[in-house]
Amino acid sequence: DRGAQLTKIKDSDAQCVLLWTAGKEAVLAVKGARDLGIELPFFGGSGQARKEFVDGAGQAAEGFVFGTGRSLVASNWGEGTPEFEAVNDFATRYEAAYGSAPDIFAGHAFDAFNIVVGALNSAGASGDAAAVATAVQATKGLIGYGGTFTFSATDHNGLTEKDLALYKITNGAWVPQK
Question: Domain check: are 155 and 167 in the same one?
Fold first, then answer.
């Protein structure tokens, strides 16, 4: 029950709220908190990297700080960098195909598809799962929407902290934080 949880937060000595959800639930939680008079800082993750969250929560989202990929705001990479070009190229092609700007999750799906296709091509026609896994782990320096991917036998994420950023919702916009 969201109301009971929010009331417990309001009545506690909490110094902030970590909201680890997305979509309608995130909107309802933030709006409900503000309606109860909870003025604590809110922190979250990629669930707040969607236009639907900012639009749905409106003023209640103001000041919300969250971490996600640098690609949410292409200029984070610096104009002319390969990552900046990759984000803009994907966004341009996505908008041409679907008539709207992509959200960060569409970019992640695009990267995942390209990583798997590259691994399948490297692994050969057999499609052997071990060969595909080895090919993914051999992926080095692949510039995608999310950043520059370098995998290994022990790193299956492929990205580093340089591919991430903090944002603050200010006047309905995602503002990169230093």
Answer: no
- Helix, strand and coil content of the chain, in percent to the nearest 5, comes to 50, 15, 30
Condensed to tens digits (0 to 9), the pLDDT of residues 51-73 reads: 999 999 999 999 999 999 999 99
Q: How far apart are CA 156 and CA 158, in angstroms?
A: 6
**pTM of structure:** 0.86
Q: How many domains, the chain?
A: 2
Q: Mind listing the pLDDT tens digit for each residue in 9-37?
A: 999 999 999 999 999 999 999 999 999 99
What is the Cα 95 distance to its own chain's centre? Answer: 19
Q: Which helix (H) or strand (E) holds 91?
A: helix 82-98
Q: State whether 115 and 171 are in the same domain.
A: no
Quick one: residue 159, left, alpha or beta (phi over 0 = left, psi -120 to 50 = alpha)?
Answer: beta
The dihedral formed by the CA atoms of 35, 15, 9 and 176, expressed in degrees to the nearest 10: 50
